[in-house]
Amino acid sequence: MIEKTMSPSDSDSSLHNNSIISQSTKQAILYSKRHTISNENELKQLVELINVNRNDIVLDLACGPGIVSFAFAQFVNHVTGIDLTPAMIQQAKILQKEKGLTNITWKIGDVAKRLPFDNNFFSIVITRYSFHHLLDPFSVLREMERVCDPASQGRVAVVDITIDPEKGYAFNQMEKIRDPSHVRALTFKELESMMQEVGLTNLKTGHYKVAHQLDEHLQSSFPENQEYIDTIRTIFAEDIGKNRLGLEIHLEEGNSIHFTTPITIMVGEK
């Protein structure tokens, strides 16, 4: 069942957007270079599950520095990337130039509002690692469905963290401390219900886990108070062997804390 929430007010949306822009601006350069974000095997799984072809016109929603856009641009006609944070789009343009890809365009825009595209415009609409930052992911998914074209075998894809229901509260409380722009990670069933409710059919799913080393992960984290970093380390240390956060936290060489983030790929047809 989908957790129903009231639509966020303009004031709430503005404050939250400021938080996203603040966090994303600080993270932009590090985010574009982290191997856990641009892992080729994960991107290959995504491209294959969506079954792309050379005629596809793609929208990459909340595209960040364009990692997904670049993966798709090698196989499709054109990609449009849209993101709220100018610093992320700046990094995307730098990386695009380095890669020599000419079939990508970028837009700065708020994906939580009506998208600046016509109905049935794109054959593929995708977003990766954004839903847990959204105040109202369901309304964003409805917009993704709106701009997707059924005449070209339209596909809508969401890639994000999904947490077991019994672990969601602990995970979300921790993540809000680490990243103030975090709202809530969905469960698999919630994401599935959303996809079905907006009318998407023939759902296909894939799963993978992203491995992290805690200290490296915290180097690209910017909580409201840097003293919270020690709080996060304590939360992780206390969860070793317990898995209350759903992150399989464990020790590796030299008592270094490692963990994995569970990711779901979900693709539906319009």
Short précis:
The protein is an alpha/beta fold and 270 residues long. The protein has 10 helices and 8 strands.
Total domain count? 1
Beta-strand percentage range: 15-25%
CATH architecture: 3-Layer(aba) Sandwich
User: Topology as H/E string?
Assistant: HHHEHEHEEHEHHEHHEE
Distance between the amino and carboxyl termini? 21 Å
The radius of gyration computed from the alpha-carbon positions, rounded to a whole number of angstroms, is: 18 Å
Number-wise, the strands total 8
User: Could you please say which CATH topology applies here?
Assistant: Rossmann fold
User: Which secondary-structure class do the elements indicate?
Assistant: alpha/beta
CATH top-level class: Alpha Beta
Tally of alpha and pi helices = 10
Helix content: 40-55%
Globular, elongated, flat, extended or rod-shaped: what is the shape? Answer: globular
Mean of all residue-level pLDDT scores? 91
CATH superfamily: Vaccinia Virus protein VP39
Contiguous runs where pLDDT drops below 50 for at least 5 residues: 1-6
Q: Biggest sheet, open or closed, and with what strands and sense? A: 8 strands, mixed
